[in-house]
């Protein structure tokens, strides 16, 4: 029997939902009958419109979409202006103030504190600049990820941006495929570093070569069924398929999308993700059915991986290759791109607008987003680099961050998410400064990947980090407080591994001390040149557990309490805050 949400989607979903959102926006959120809100808000997600957490019932988040994080000239400015004009909440964040944009781990952007009545005006402003929120959420194909410097990378192995653009236009744009069993992630990368993280996507294409008709050709190998979350992460499995051209790559991915769309589990949502589908069917059965019913050419067996070293978030030494896109890098055409480190991926509206101005002044105006919540300024001529790097904004969002800021990712947390158990962004921003000021890192270590997810859904990709944090709750001194599980040793790469959880339900005020003890042990006991992931593997989980010592420190934050019980973690007067939220 199909789930309740499947019944709602079968009645109305996809493009048709847009008209209903506009109707409700004209009448106001109160026009949505109370007993029908779950149904409508489930449908709204396809258009990137999410009601915020309980207590923020009159406010919405909007997630935007693109192909591979590419923001064309003018688009970031339009997004920043929307945030400035429409994304102001009733209470300021103590760390970030009011009105901002959040950069995500899928090369996308989220806006918060939007009112339903303003959604049509927000769409009008964004769509005039070519920015869309269609298919940005819900049970559909989400933002397609890839190498953010596709087409500019001087070491690109296989061209991928035209294929990504076609997936965006022809596959994600197909309303007949809008209603998937659950959310579905596609990645394509033709680079040598592996920055699309193919192994944690529902379907991923990675660069390969194969001899075809006596000639060695480059193309992609296909992997399926990867994903994180619910403490049941999976590495995508090899489908044993090689595709040598854009047309066949498109057809194979489309075929798997259609196969999952038709045969995926729609009865039990907890088992509906493609990773469970691949578990149950197996790659051989999926490949056979793909060949028989979904593609009209003979599938070739997998080719040879042509990456020398998979280095992006792989726990490899920096000498092996790039592990992110931060810094100044030469493009294939002789210009440069400059990757900035935005702490926890949050840009104020004014910073976003200023960044767009800087992109215009020093480069082509194009900005690209990475899977590590960072922006790239593209197409900067060499003669303009020094002036660009001297811009005051690049002192704040720097291309030369300290190792803690450079490696850290944080999800939305209890500030807006109903699933999260802890506040994430503001706490992490302050923790980064505390770690910078109190913990020494070896000179040859440029980054430590610390990923913080406010719950086990793992939007912050904690499973893939050097140090992964899951939001929890725990008792301390007789009170319920925010807490975290601590894991170590995760990473993507030729040999993907997920973190081993070494400490559970550590009160939030003891976590910075625990991280400090881990990093200090790493610095003292590592072999020369050893990365954190390599050190964890060498030491073993049991030993590393002993090194991870939770303790109170002088770290302070104004939100150590159990914020899950508050409508907003930073609201001081609960009664006044409730009145503010419901006054609309």
Automatic annotation (TrEMBL):
This is Ferredoxin--nitrite reductase. GO terms for molecular function: 4 iron, 4 sulfur cluster binding; heme binding; metal ion binding; oxidoreductase activity. Residues 56-91, 95-129, 329-392 form the Nitrite/Sulfite reductase ferredoxin-like domain. Keywords: 4Fe-4S, Heme, Iron, Iron-sulfur, Metal-binding, Oxidoreductase. The keyword Transcription does not apply. InterPro entries: NIR_SIR_4Fe-4S (IPR051329), NiRdtase/SiRdtase_haem-b_fer (IPR005117), Nit/Sulf_reduc_fer-like_dom_sf (IPR036136), NO2/SO3_Rdtase_4Fe4S_dom (IPR006067), NO2/SO3_Rdtase_4Fe4S_sf (IPR045854), NO2/SO3_Rdtase_FeS/sirohaem_BS (IPR006066). Residues 138-294, 406-547 form the Nitrite/sulphite reductase 4Fe-4S domain. Belongs to the nitrite and sulfite reductase 4Fe-4S domain family. The keyword Amino-acid biosynthesis does not apply.
